Amino acid sequence: MTLKQLEAFYWAANCKSFAVAANRLNISVSSLSKRIAELETSIGSELFSRNARSATLTPLGEQLIPHAKDLLRNADQFMKRASNSRALSGRCRFGVGELTSLTWMPRLIEEIQRTHPKLSIEPFVGVGELIECRLVEGELDFAIIAGPSTRPFITSSLIGNTEFIWVASKKAVPNPATLPPQALADHTLIILPQSAGTVRMLDDWMAELNVSPGRNLNCNSWGAIAGLIRQGLGLGFLPSAWAQIMIERGDVHLLSAFPALRPLQYTIQWRRDDTRPLLQHMRELALRTIDFHAPSCLL
């Protein structure tokens, strides 16, 4: 029995499919299957019941999952102590929201490559719910999204927050300085979709003021939202650094009578059963580089 065989067994059991598990381990599906078969031969029993379309754990496989997890965690701790000063290698797949991708993700990747030049970086950009699902299914090693996660098997570590400012163009709101929050009912609110991390923040704000918009215009891109607000198709909030630049240019104006939204927390998240040293290194680099005021290529 080898650690590679145990890894193949554990991640095949805990990922959405053998293909996802193989991708996580940076091996082919046939290599993954071979390692599992070798482990089954070593213990003299099947761990998966296989058919033409799928593979499911046998009762013995179910029983051995916690033990495999413990063995792999101990191996990870051993390697962490033995290689604290050694650069990481292999693949690193992570997910971020659009705001992170357009501000400080380039600097994060630069720091990762400088610190760990043998690490192959594969970023994925999307809305929070999609990224979290891919993390749960084993398709990502970690995620940097608005949080914390409510899933019990996801670990969330706070790394910072960002602030937002209410704005509108004079085409949509002729007198932005005096528009009260109650007038939101007469306007279109341009916002990210329900799967975005800003939803809870906005819901709390509207509940506290007992207001709601006349209609919503949902869009899954911050850059597009900025353009829609500038065009006068509705009002909304933007990351403070972006809003300040657009206000200074005269593209939009501050809705000064609107109370401020609470800052949105950002976390780095990973699966609780993933104890690789990689994750602690990535957390430290994220803490060092996070900066939502970094220039955006869209402004």
TrEMBL record:
SUPFAM superfamilies: Periplasmic binding protein-like II, Winged helix' DNA-binding domain. It comes from the Bacteria. Keywords: DNA-binding, Transcription, Transcription regulation. PROSITE patterns: HTH_LYSR. GO terms for molecular function: DNA-binding transcription factor activity; transcription cis-regulatory region binding. Residues 1-58 form the HTH lysR-type domain. Belongs to the LysR transcriptional regulatory family. PANTHER family: HTH-TYPE TRANSCRIPTIONAL REGULATOR, LYSR FAMILY TRANSCRIPTIONAL REGULATOR. This is LysR family transcriptional regulator y2377 (Yersinia pestis KIM).
